[in-house]
Every structure is written in C-alpha cells, then in structure tokens.
Amino acid sequence: MGVPLALAFLYALGTVVILPSPQELVLAAVAKAPAWAVILAAVCGRALGAYLLFLAGDRLKRWPRVARWRKKEAKVLRWAVRLEKWVNRFGAPALFLCLLIPGFPDTAVSYVLALFNRRPWAFALAFALASAVRLSLAYLGIYYVLDRA
Question: 16 and 47 in contact (C-beta within 8 Å)?
C-alpha cells in the first residue's frame, strides 16, 4: 500500500510543478490502496508542490535579469501588470475555482499565479482544497458508473 501512495503523492506534486496532465489520473492507484488514502496523498502532494512552486516563482521574479527583462519589454510589462492586478484582486478563491475544472491540466495556471501571488499559504491551501474536492467528485463519479454497470 505504501508504494501506490508514494507514487500518488509524487504524481500529484509533479502535476503542479512540471507535468501538464490532469490530476485525476492519480485515481488509478485506488486499485492498490483505499480511495481516501490515495486522495489524501495526492492532496498533500499538490499542496507541497504549490508551496514549492510559489517559492520558486518568488525567487525567480527577484532575479536581476528577469527584473531587467520585465522593464525592458513593454508588452511583457503590460501583461505582467494586468496579471498581477488580477491575481491580487481575486487571489486564492479564483485559483480554487480554476482548479475545479475537471480534467483540466492546470500547470500553466499554477505558474502564472505562483509568479504574481503574495500569499504562499493561501496559494497552497487553494490547491489542496480544490484537489480534494475535484478528486473526491471524480472518484465518486467513477464509483457510481462502475457500480451501475
């Protein structure tokens, strides 16, 4: 039971940081471990991945080279200012709602929000809660369909 949970944790972490794939694929581990444990492992992986992504984005935007590039390119600056205003206005609730879209690979959204967000715990919590809801609903839907067959 430990290996499927570890793989679920790592896959969920990877979907935040690098893998542009839907997080529902982690539910394949339900065949080897209890559903609640798989979902809990995935939620923890996504929360940790979101926090690490936030830290990486925070470090990246402080690099002098990135700061110079943002100031030098007018289009990039306008785009960055708009995104930053949007993220700071709607923040974690907007992230939560974006992450609830089923089957949606949310890696790009997480990168944009990690770069412009100012609250790492709200960012990680939004990821965790949205993942818990989304995976639970997906599991219940799969369970319902298999039960009816």
Answer: no
Q: Which amino acid type is present at position 60? A: L
Residue 81 has φ and ψ, to the nearest 5°, of: -65, -45
pTM of the model as a whole: 0.78
DSSP label of 76: H
In whole angstroms, give the CA distance from residue 94 to residue 49: 18
Per-residue pLDDT, 82 = 75
Distance separating alpha carbons of residues 16 and 54, to the nearest angstrom:
11
First to last CA, the chain: 27
Q: Residue 36 — left, alpha, or beta (φ > 0 → left; ψ -120 to 50 → alpha)?
A: alpha
How many other C-beta atoms can be found within 10 angstroms of the C-beta atom of residue 115? 19
Q: How far apart are CA 126 and CA 144, in angstroms?
A: 27
What residue spans define the domains of the chain?
2-148
